[in-house]
Fold:
Amino acid sequence: MVALTYGAAALATLPLIFILVHIARAAVGSLNLALFVSMPAPVGNAGGGMANAIVGTLILICIAAVIGVPVGIGAGLYLAEHRRRPLANSVRFLSDVLNGLPSIVLGIFAWQLLVRPAGHFSAVAGGIALAVMVMPLVTRTTEEMILLVPNALREAALALGYQRWRTSLAVVLRTAMPGIVTGALVAIARIAGETAPLLFTAFGNQFWSTSLNRPIAALPLQIFNYAVSPYDDWHSLAWAGALVLIGIVFVISLAARFATRSRFGAAVD
Amino acid sequence: MLRSEQSDAALPASDLTGCDNAVTRNASLQPVNGSSFQCNMDGLPGIRDVSSLEREGSLPRLSAGGDTGDRAYTVLTTAFAAFIPLLLIAIATELSRAAWPALHEFGFGFLTSSEWDVPAGKFGAAPAIFGTIVSSFIALLIATPLALGVAVFLSEFAPRWLQQPVAFLVDLLAAIPSVVYGLWGIFVLIPLLREDIIPFLRDTLHLGATRFFSGPAYGPSMLAAGIVLAIMALPYISAVSREVLRAVPRSQRDAALALGATRWEVIRDAVIPNARSGIIGGVMLGLGRALGETMAVTMVIGNRPEISASLLAPGYTMASLIANEFSEATSDIHLSALMAVGAVLFLITIVVNGIARWLVWTVADKADA
Structure:
């Protein structure tokens, strides 16, 4: 039976290795500078890149972070400071519920709320759909990180005449910051590869666009469109795109690890 | 430790709340450094009680005046916290409002009819609901034993040097974007199914005679979706199971060992029964993920709105139905029917996740007690 658990562990790590190795092998042919700097080529023309999709994904990530992270931190502060209030309990539960919602449902919600009244797809709508996914994750990590801050710090600040809001922001929040940054980056890494919420909001764009009020290209959408297309050129671009997307997710995750180990690391313990 | 320049850096943030007098009032306190914070506190244990009581609002505030900042701060954080329930309410109302025309038109038949005919304007979501449930069920059937095996391995048997790398690799499965799983599914898994796995299941294991493995096999199928979903749900199930297995008290294991149980018997009779509801919670969380998963499933399930007993036949899930048809929906009733599918999916995942959280929490409470 012990051997069986060894077997399970081996079997569970196999798909990951298979997938990563296959992506690396399939993508290596089309991984070049053009991928990052040039625009998609029409069918039949060799080459072409995904510059617009890469920039689009970065813009969408920024929108999601700018909207989602502050709300998450604010809600997390509330949860940590009013632990037993009825509102805190329901917010805690509902943020878990929100976290578990299928991303496609958030996509049609954003469409109904933002795209339908406006009459056109837009980068902002996509960013907001992603922000909704960021919020619950940041809320919960903020709460957990703030609870780790020693009470003595808070009391010291209060004893010196700091008001509660300044104590919270300048002492408690700052001490918890590295952990919160890590949590925010983990949340952003999770949404960076999301496709379903963008299908009917950001929609994708074959052309160069950085306007927030117009449809915008995104790497996951581009991979999806290329993967289901019948053209071999596009298939290999899809693999290259997948490698870039995993690269982006991986860099953000690395940054998250680095944030915890940075100069503030010791203050949390 | 806290340094004075950190407090300075935080000042611009406080300006945002628009409380000038508070800033000037406290400006004289800036140069105090962190170490003296600590020393002063140790001598004054009584302060602890006052500050915490004050925080709960049961004592009158000590500092009179200048509490505009406090009030603004409380209002602001409460507003952010209240935003999350409001968001959920907004999602629920918007979805049900948009779904109402279809639900009104087709009534209960929307859930039971398997006729999804866009040109005729007839919409029954049964094939999609069936597909969602079956593909998630296949996923759990594959992923649960594996995830449990990994969790037991990591929490009980793994040598120390193996624990972290294996846990890291399994967790990494959750970091791969679902569209990449879909890509892998189309170009690697489906050919593999068509050429090796399905012939093996049919001819070598003689399963072809059963209803579940009959009919033509093109590749894109319920089985393919189930396998991809299993890989995607595995890290969630194993992460939660690992946590709850670790939460089982040491004394349980020691007691079983003292009674002469082998290492395996300890796990079977002492550890797993204690962690059972938490493990079920983890499985339910994995189920929640699988039910709502969109892209990977859309890319490998074949997208045909029919109910078939064969796992090798193409199918549809609620999420992939929405993903496929939403941007092409032209008639109002089609759009509304897709919204109704979204609303059903929303309800199912809320129920599944609610039960999962509750189960995990009960184990966590027991471990605390």
About this structure: Residues 1-51 of chain B have pLDDT under 50 and may be disordered. The first strand of chain B starts at residue 116 and ends at 117. DSSP finds 15 helices and two strands in chain B.
